[in-house]
């Protein structure tokens, strides 16, 4: 229904952003809401996908059309819902996901929240050889957010990152496992999330 929404970014939270357009605040769930932080209180375009189910009506948002198309491909795989697809996109390194699918690397795919061996096998069956048509030459830098200029307090950024990781489906135990290696860093929220995801996917 909505290809994209252009408006002012009013709020960034662990699970979603709020984009204001003509007096209406749209709640948009994204893979990594903090990757939109540089647009706070500024006009921006968010590509959207409207998910409709009997018990839910939700908007999901993306930085690019390519990201949105990959999300749609992922949720069409049996066993992967919108939340699971967001967790996969949040890794910030889709080339790893694509390589895993192309090389039938189930051991990598099962590291994502909610992806078991059966779902990993289904991803390979459904998507292998079928993603290059979406973004032929775009995989290496897809979803890579630019470094944020804002200097957030490190402790606050880490707290926000932890909330975002839990919102993606990672358990308290999984987050606590990588927490010690994050505490010595001085990063933005987005940076903490990406670093944590790299460690969680190792």
UniProtKB/TrEMBL annotation:
The keyword Transcription regulation does not apply. The gene is ruvA. The RuvA-RuvB-RuvC complex processes Holliday junction (HJ) DNA during genetic recombination and DNA repair, while the RuvA-RuvB complex plays an important role in the rescue of blocked DNA replication forks via replication fork reversal (RFR). RuvA specifically binds to HJ cruciform DNA, conferring on it an open structure. The RuvB hexamer acts as an ATP-dependent pump, pulling dsDNA into and through the RuvAB complex. HJ branch migration allows RuvC to scan DNA until it finds its consensus sequence, where it cleaves and resolves the cruciform DNA. GO terms for biological process: DNA recombination; DNA repair. One of its GO terms (molecular function) is four-way junction helicase activity. Belongs to the RuvA family. Homotetramer. Forms an RuvA(8)-RuvB(12)-Holliday junction (HJ) complex. HJ DNA is sandwiched between 2 RuvA tetramers; dsDNA enters through RuvA and exits via RuvB. An RuvB hexamer assembles on each DNA strand where it exits the tetramer. Each RuvB hexamer is contacted by two RuvA subunits (via domain III) on 2 adjacent RuvB subunits; this complex drives branch migration. In the full resolvosome a probable DNA-RuvA(4)-RuvB(12)-RuvC(2) complex forms which resolves the HJ. Residues 72-91, 107-126 form the Helix-hairpin-helix DNA-binding motif class domain. Keywords: ATP-binding, Cytoplasm, DNA damage, DNA recombination, DNA repair, DNA-binding, Helicase, Hydrolase, Nucleotide-binding. Residues 153-202 are annotated as: Domain III. InterPro entries: DNA_helicase_Holl-junc_RuvA_I, Hlx-hairpin-Hlx_DNA-bd_motif, NA-bd_OB-fold, RuvA, RuvA_2-like, RuvA_C, RuvA_C_sf. This is Holliday junction branch migration complex subunit RuvA. It is found in: Cytoplasm.
């Amino acid at each position: 229904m909505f290809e994209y929404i252009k408006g002012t970014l009013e709020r960034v939270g662990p699970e979603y952003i709020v984009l204001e357009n003509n007096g209406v605040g749209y709640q948009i769930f994204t893979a990594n809401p903090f990757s939109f932080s540089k647009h706070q209180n500024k006009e921006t375009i968010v590509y959207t996908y409207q998910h409709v189910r009997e018990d839910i009506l939700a908007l999901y948002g993306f930085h690019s059309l390519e990201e949105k198309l990959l999300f749609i491909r992922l949720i069409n795989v049996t066993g992967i819902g919108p939340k699971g697809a967001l967790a996969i996109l949040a890794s910030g390194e889709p080339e790893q996901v694509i390589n895993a699918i192309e090389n039938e690397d189930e051991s990598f795919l099962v590291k994502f929240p909610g992806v078991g061996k059966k779902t990993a096998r289904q991803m390979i069956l459904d998507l292998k050889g079928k993603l290059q048509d979406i973004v032929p030459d775009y995989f290496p830098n897809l979803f890579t957010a630019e470094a944020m200029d804002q200097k957030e307090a490190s402790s606050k950024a880490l707290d926000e990152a932890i909330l975002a990781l839990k919102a993606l489906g990672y358990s308290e135990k999984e987050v606590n496992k990588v927490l010690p290696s994050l505490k010595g860093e001085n990063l933005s929220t987005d940076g903490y999330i990406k670093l944590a995801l790299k460690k969680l996917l190792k």
